[in-house]
Amino acid sequence: MTQYGQQTELRNNWSLDEIKAIYYKPVLELIVEAAQVHKQYQATGEVQVCTLLSVKTGGCPEDCSYCPQAARFHTDVEVHKLLSQEQVLTAAQRARDGGSTRFCMGAAWREVRDNRDFDKVLDMVKGVNDLGLEVCCTLGMVNEYQAEKLKEAGLYAYNHNLDTSEENYSNIITTRTYDDRLDTIDNVRKAGISVCSGGIIGLGETDEDRIGMLHTLSTMVQHPESVPVNALVPVKGTPLENQPLVTVWEMVRMIATARILMPKTMVRLSAGRERMSVTEQALCFLAGANSIFTGEKLLTTPNPDFDQDKAMFELLGLNPRKSFKEEGQPVLN
């Protein structure tokens, strides 16, 4: 890479030392470099607007330390069964009217099971797709057959986050392995579905863990089309309820490094945005973020609403990205 990010090709052979050298740059220098890479590979001023709906909340058998939906933790999350198709399509229509172009449905499942609930989700995917929205799901682990069924129903993207580095993973989750997550991503990719995979900072991890997670993502044969960067929202009743809040500079450093490593990827400013000022969010956009979730909730945690984001877009001169704009990433040899 030449100075200020004038890359000539996409790479998936980043070494840990190379990523460390980028990550630890002085933050203003890092922002400038990421902004240059962003300008080279992305439409500047264009931001993807997504909405996330919990279609089945709570009662999850997993032990993800950050998650208020785990059945074993005592939180204020109210368990509800799978929403009806009518409820989901009403929410999707409202999201589209509010300016969203991608609609993501999340279910608090460990894995997808071949049952009536999965059939209902497939019908939801078809219905949302008919509204002209990119449809995304996050349903836990899926096998190859289930990924193919989702693709046939019209699913555009599947979210399955790595959460943290492989080395730190067992400190956060013990009910599934890191390889389980990678296997689901492979199954989604084989089905021809766009991959959405990122992680969470503020879990008690080190900078080395953050670098390790970015290394895993950026050395995949095909970079994820979307990489959400989440700041932990500590929830009372979870093991991580007393974790200190992540600073905006930590978010900026993660976003900028992700942008430089994966120039064509949508880097999503995700959980934790609700407590950021417009100025702080502008720094994240400058550093290479070009996707957000909008709407009052992210599954169960607070999030800026449509009107707030519309005002921010007008102030910063941002434009919503259109649905189904080509996002395909080349396979790198």
UniProtKB/TrEMBL annotation:
GO terms for molecular function: 2 iron, 2 sulfur cluster binding; 4 iron, 4 sulfur cluster binding; biotin synthase activity; iron ion binding. Binds 1 [2Fe-2S] cluster. The cluster is coordinated with 3 cysteines and 1 arginine. Binds 1 [4Fe-4S] cluster. The cluster is coordinated with 3 cysteines and an exchangeable S-adenosyl-L-methionine. Its EC number is 2.8.1.6. [4Fe-4S] cluster binds at C60, C64, C67. Its cofactor is [2Fe-2S] cluster; [4Fe-4S] cluster. PROSITE patterns: RADICAL_SAM (PS51918). Residues 45-273 form the Radical SAM core domain. SUPFAM superfamilies: Radical SAM enzymes. It catalyses: (4R,5S)-dethiobiotin + (sulfur carrier)-SH + 2 reduced [2Fe-2S]-[ferredoxin] + 2 S-adenosyl-L-methionine = (sulfur carrier)-H + biotin + 2 5'-deoxyadenosine + 2 L-methionine + 2 oxidized [2Fe-2S]-[ferredoxin]. Pathway: Cofactor biosynthesis; biotin biosynthesis; biotin from 7,8-diaminononanoate: step 2/2. Belongs to the radical SAM superfamily. Biotin synthase family. PANTHER family: BIOTIN SYNTHASE, BIOTIN SYNTHASE, MITOCHONDRIAL. Homodimer. This is Biotin synthase. It comes from Pontibacter arcticus. The gene is bioB.
